[in-house]
Write a structure and sequence with these properties.
heterodimer, A: mainly beta, 11 strands, 53% strand, B: 116 residues, 5-stranded antiparallel beta sheet
Chain lengths: 114, 116
Amino acid sequence: NAGVTQTPKFQVLKTGQSMTLQCAQDMNHNSMYWYRQDPGMGLRLIYYSASEGTTDKGEVPNGYNVSRLNKREFSLRLESAAPSQTSVYFCASLRIAGVGDTQYFGPGTRLTVL
Amino acid sequence: GESVGLHLPTLSVQEGDNSIINCAYSNSASDYFIWYKQESGKGPQFIIDIRSNMDKRQGQRVTVLLNKTVKHLSLQIAATQPGDSAVYFCAETGEIATDSWGKFQFGAGTQVVVTP
């Protein structure tokens, strides 16, 4: 049981390049999330997927697209990277249980856009 | 808009003492709250959660208190250890079965530094 996995761990892009960040969870969770975290700040929601086949914008969706490929996988795409997208990106999945709902995070992707 | 925030950006605690980390929220419709711990270079790790129908919940060495009257959340860590040094975030989301459910909003975080 690996939990939430993300690839790549590190990435350097030039302005205008595109890339896709991959995320997968093996916990059979319905909901998945993409956040970005900038230095000294909390996490900001980019996009989320409440269930397979649905996606919704979060607080900072501009410049990003997402795909909920199946229940396990939720990818984040930067079509034309900008320096302002330099950040650490975290994927998360959500379990809904009787006692409490727990959001599990991946290890993060550190992205630098030059 | 609605926000979740923390009172103290940095908390220095002596090993063995108790830590108290505070969080204010402004959305009265918030239904579910989580405290996370984030160590350097890692993703946030779930510590403890609480629903709005509770005012206290205890875990192993941690207690979360919720005061809905003043919209305040706190995390108490008993007998703080060096391994507790990290950034602690509170997060909230709206009521289940509403449009705001699952859209977590995070506070900026509090850096806890445990000194020997």
